[in-house]
């Protein structure tokens, strides 16, 4: 049998993979290759960095696959505190994973559109480039929809962590703030003209701190389940 402390460390390690792959896909692939409102340059970047673009897609898949055991272990470790709330949280994150998983089709579509296959000869290069950028823009919106559900997950889990006494309450507060920031980030984009999001740079910092702090605590310290608080 694996002890709860070691299970927590496994969850922390998996969460670290989730954070690392997420940062790689978003910062080093999508934000590097995509140029807003310039379809031709975006298409040129993808074609010249095709393997990097493919790795971004693969690391996103790894992110979601590794994320599921992370979620289940967290549920197992903290279910003694509030099983019903955690079941609701797991439901939210399963919906999020399904949405973003299907949404990955939009992320890989540019590779199909820019593949130079014979059946695409009916479209001009600038048309194919436009469709490629449109796919990436749809991917951004789909990702933001998925993060709404993940935001609720973080708020619920943050509350349960705060009530559990298994780890310092500060991590529960930070994780709940992370969830709130995800919600503000997505709804700001949905409600802004042109789907602009001027708040992202400010929200990214507390999001990163909240997720990384919980990840590192689980990885390094584990949890102490000697004090069980039933709710």
Any overview of this molecule?
- The two termini are 27 Å apart.
- The model has no long low-confidence stretch (mean pLDDT 92).
- Helices cover 80% and strands 0% of the residues.
- The longest helix has 40 residues, at 125-164.
- It has helices at 4-33, 39-48, 50-78, 83-113, 125-164, 169-191, 200-220.
Low-pLDDT segments? none
Helix content: over 70%
Task: Give the amount of beta strand, in percent.
Answer: under 5%
Shape: elongated
Tell me the structural class: mainly alpha
N-end to C-end Cα span = 27 Å
Number of helices: 7
Order of helices and strands: HHHHHHH
Mean pLDDT: 92
Report Rg. 20 Å
What does the main sheet amount to?
none
* Number of DSSP strand runs: 0
Topology:
Layout lengths: L3 H30 L5 H10 L1 H29 L4 H31 L11 H40 L4 H23 L8 H21 L11
Task: Please give a quick description of this structure.
This protein has 231 residues and is mainly alpha-helical. Helices cover 80% and strands 0% of the residues. The model has no long low-confidence stretch (mean pLDDT 92).
Features:
231 residues; mainly alpha; 7 helices; 0% strand; elongated
């Amino acid at each position: 049998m694996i002890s709860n402390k070691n299970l927590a460390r496994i969850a922390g390690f998996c969460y670290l993979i989730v954070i690392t792959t997420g940062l790689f896909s978003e910062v080093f692939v999508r934000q590097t290759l995509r140029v807003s409102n310039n379809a031709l340059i975006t298409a040129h970047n993808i074609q010249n960095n095709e393997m990097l673009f493919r790795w971004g897609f693969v690391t996103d898949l790894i992110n979601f696959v590794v994320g599921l055991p992370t979620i289940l272990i967290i549920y197992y470790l903290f279910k003694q505190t509030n099983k019903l709330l955690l079941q609701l949280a797991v439901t939210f994150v399963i919906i999020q994973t399904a949405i973003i998983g299907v949404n990955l089709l939009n992320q890989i579509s540019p590779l199909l559109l820019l593949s130079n296959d014979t059946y695409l000869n009916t479209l001009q290069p600038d048309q194919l480039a436009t469709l490629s950028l449109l796919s990436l823009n749809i991917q951004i919106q789909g990702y933001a929809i998925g993060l709404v559900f993940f935001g609720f997950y973080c708020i619920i889990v943050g509350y349960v962590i705060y009530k559990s006494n298994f780890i310092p309450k500060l991590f529960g507060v930070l994780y709940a703030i992370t969830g709130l920031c995800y919600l503000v980030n997505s709804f700001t984009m949905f409600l802004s003209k042109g789907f602009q999001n001027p708040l992202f740079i400010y929200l990214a910092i507390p999001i990163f701190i909240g997720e990384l702090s919980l990840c590192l605590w689980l990885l390094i310290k584990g949890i102490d389940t000697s004090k069980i608080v039933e709710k």
